[in-house]
């Protein structure tokens, strides 16, 4: 099981940007799609708004919106 959860939406270009970066780096997520029942509500409860991508790092409790911040965080995390 991955330590990383990524909330996403099918076709979201910002999500694809994160997913492509992660794929290049061999980083895996548990993906949660906000189109699935209860997932958008779960995201809002966690982060406060309905916006994807949203990353949760279970290893240290870090959570964030914004694809650029997520890519930067993941690039440092894998170093
Ligand atoms: N600046 C944000 C933009 C994210 C964004 O615009 N996400 C859209 C989907 S592409 C969104 O969450 N919209 C709300 C919704 O689809 O319910 C980022 O780079 O992550």
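Q: What amino acid sequence fits the structure above?
A:
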């Amino acid at each position: 099981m991955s330590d990383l959860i990524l909330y996403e939406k099918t076709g979201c270009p910002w999500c694809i940007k994160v997913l492509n970066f992660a794929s290049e780096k061999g980083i895996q997520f548990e993906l949660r799609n906000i189109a699935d029942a209860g997932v958008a509500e779960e995201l809002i409860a966690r982060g406060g708004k309905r916006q994807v991508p949203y990353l949760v790092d279970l290893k240290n409790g870090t959570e964030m919106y914004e694809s650029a911040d997520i890519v930067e965080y993941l690039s440092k995390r894998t170093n």
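Q: And what stands out in the fold?
A: Residues 13-25 form the longest helix (13 residues).
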